[in-house]
Amino acid sequence: MPRTARGALTLAETAPRSRRQRRIGGLLTVVLVGVVGTAGYVGIRHLTRLVSGESCRVTAADQTFEWAPDQASNAAAITAIAVKRGLPPRAATIAIATAMQESKVRNVRFGDRDSLGLFQQRPSQGWGSAEQILDPEYSTNKFYDALVKVEGYTDMDIAEAAQEVQRSAAGEAYAQHEAQARVTASVLSGQTPGGIGCALGDPEGPGDADELLALVEKDFGLTGVVTGERQVLVSTDSDDAAWAVASWAVARAVDTGAVEVRTDLSRWERSMDEASLGWQSVGTGSSAGEPDARSVLIRLA
Question: Are 282 and 266 in contact (CB under 8 A)?
């Protein structure tokens, strides 16, 4: 996929993969399957990063799943908007599972007939213009607008709730993504603190604090402040909300150029090392400039 000036993956794919790309992907899959038999789970995670470069990991309730950075970024936007709207993590789970089935959580510019974006919404069916649908925040809000009209959606099976919105020809397919969607939503909504890490290479250029502030406001409706050169502080009203913002900041680092995220005496630091797939303790007491349990400090390159 093409990259932005800062090295981040662009948010929309313009065409399906070619036959050659699919053949290469299939070959890599065969290699990875072979590694499973000889090196186990740790081996395949390591080889995956060697092959694809960068990756993100979410862990909750003793379950771990891998995401490509662009997928994690889109999942973070989907979850943040649920938090902003005051919806339960269940809503984000349904939305992520839907996007996994419809687009692999990638903002694609192609699909069946005129279907577009994360949820393969169709301009001809009243979801909005093509430009609007390709805005992840817009398309996510439209999905939730439809979901909240489904009576009892929080008590439905994931596939049933998703199908009420999507009206897919294969509605049962959403169910296969439930576990990964649930873990991801739990982590990104702040219900599971410190459950995400991303192994990322150095950004190609400096981050922009104003752009980061605009994205925080767009996704969460929160107003942050610049506290230093390319450094942003976001305050929230709860520990869970702070962890939601912190987890979001890690997941969206591929887009923003974030190199460090701190909250609640914990730190994520950008690198390609195994340590970047988790959080580290930064001490037992607060100090000047250190965010508390309800605030998040994001440092850009």
Answer: yes
Q: Which residue has the tokens 């489904």?
A: 150
Closest-CA residue to 242 (of 191, 285, 182):
191
Cβ–Cβ under 8 Å, residues 189 and 92: yes
226-245, pLDDT tens digit by residue? 998 899 999 999 999 999 99
What span, in angstroms and rounded, lies between the C-alpha atoms of 83 and 185? 10
The sign of the dihedral angle between the CA atoms of 221, 7, 254, 63 is: positive
Query: Which uninterrupted H or E stretch holds 163?
Result: helix 158-166
One-letter identity of residue 147 = L
Question: Collapsing DSSP states into helix, strand and coil, what is residue 262?
Answer: strand
| β 231-235/196-199 pair status | unpaired
CA 35/CA 168 separation, integer angstroms: 36
With CA atoms as reference, report the closest residue to 138 among 221, 252, 247, 219: 219
Separation in Å, CA 95 to CA 23, 80, 99 = 30, 12, 6
Asked if 98 and 143 touch (Cβ cutoff 8 Å), the reply is yes
How do residues 71-101 score in pLDDT, each as one tens digit?
999 999 999 999 999 999 999 999 999 999 9
Measured CA to CA in angstroms, residue 295 lies from 81, 89, 183, 225, 230 at distances of: 18, 21, 23, 11, 17
Q: Find residue 300's DSSP bridge partners.
A: 258
* CB of 181 closer than 8 Å to CB of 89: no
Q: Are 202 and 56 in contact (CB under 8 A)?
A: no
